[in-house]
Amino acid sequence: MGNNERNQKEEKKERKKPGIWQWIWAILACVCCILFVIWTGYYAVLILIPVFIDIYITKFVPWGAWKQSENPTIKRVLDWVDAIVFALVGVYFITTFFFQNYQIPTSSLEKSLLVGDFLCVNKMIYGARSPMTPLSFPLMQHTVPVLGTKSYLEKPQLEYKRFAGIRSVERYDIVVFNYPSGDTVATKMQNADYYDLCLSLGHDVVNSDKAQFGDIIYRPVDRRENYVKRCVGLPGETIQLTNDTVFINGKALPHPKMMQLMYCVQTDGTEISRKVFEDLGISKDDQDVMSIQKVNEIQQDSIKLALLGLEYNPDPNKLGLLYVNVNMTADMVTKLSQKPFVKKIIRRNEYYKRYAEYKPMVMNSVTQRAYPGTYHKNIPYGDFPALWIPKKGETITFDEDIEYKVAAYGRCIKNYEFNNFEYKDGKVYINGQEANSYTFKYDYYFMMGDNRDMSADSRMWGFVPEDHIVGQPMFIWLSYNKDNSSIRWDRIFTKGNKNS
């Protein structure tokens, strides 16, 4: 009897008598398929049920026929192809609907999440998004490494849809989201905000100088950079910052436990060693941004020193040193203030405001541009003007403060909700028609970093639309400390949504 006839008989015998485990795997696969369809509404996926039944039970289709090849080279190659394809499909499926890896690249959430933390992001808690750009390489956000080409095909583009989740975004949640202002990118300056470049240098300059800025490209929502911040403002609320304190609808919010601010530290003349800063938990990067001044070079007048919040000493040689930009949490401030050589600790933003009171000429150096950048240009550090956060189904009118509303909400209406938006001669036109109002179709959120004075967040670039929300950090699976090239073992498998 030939090998082919023997194989055929064995296959028929196997088809007639599937084992108990084959039935278990078939039932499990079919149940998972049905549950996935119920969750997503992707009814076309039901076509996989007869495939699973045939793979495990009936075996009419020779799915693994290539494994019977007598050519070892072909068999080895197809083994690898099978493993790679299975892995890619599995990774694509898992990262699209369930979990995603994310690495903390900046210090905007220190000390809650540290640079070098690797997070497992839970997409199911807020409900996973359906793939908007379905044809893309797994594990590549927007660019293929080395080649520098796009890792996705721009077409087809699917409409935004979010599946059922456990709950909605809540205040103080740490949230991973696609960077809204990253819809447009200068390819040679991808780390710079395109709109900020245009605001600072001029739209025509940025769009015409390809040698410096490269091509200007558009990225779909789910292909924009991933950011992670803490949600501070919810849809429909009015947010404001005064003296580093957040107010929601006029009520002050408690600070997150690990929130950091910049401080000015006055000593009796003693230089603070790096060891002291390291013991406090101040990173090398934060130490590098500090500056040191002699207090007697700032001011020798007791009244003006008191105005600055500093301590006066009649001996001009013993006024001490002033460390500026010392980045600390409230607990770190308490510990440092107990050092015998520390005379005063004052918030840097408060110090700036006091300094500007009697030296107006320095006002520009202690102010910032705040969102909307075309409207707020000289806001003191630590402050943010009152701003209403758009809510799905709520309406704004263009009957007063039109220029402000256009600056604050024009990007939402045009870039995020895909309307043709124009403002000319004092009138608003939406989709070619003069408009006196607009009703939002998305919820929006206001995100901020815990490292308040070192975070580029909604205070600079505005709101995060609901379709940009990716998920919430579930746990830290690895934490690498670049300062001393070591692994932070005490952080591994700790909660990712810290201080919530």
Explain how this protein is built.
- The protein is α+β, with helices and mostly antiparallel strands and 500 residues long.
- Among the domains are: 3-97, no CATH class; 238-388, no CATH class; 395-439, no CATH class.
- 30% of the residues lie in helices and 24% in strands.
- The protein is built from 15 helices and 25 strands.
- Helix 2 (20-40) runs antiparallel to helix 3 (48-58).
Which residues form runs of ≥5 with pLDDT under 50? none
The percent range for strand residues is 15-25%
Number of strands: 25
Task: Give the N-to-C terminal Cα separation.
Answer: 71 Å
Overall pLDDT score: 89
Tally of DSSP helical segments: 15
Q: What is the structural class?
A: alpha+beta
Q: Any idea what the radius of gyration is?
A: 29 Å
Helix percent reads: 25-40%
Main sheet overview: 8 strands, antiparallel
**Shape estimate:** globular
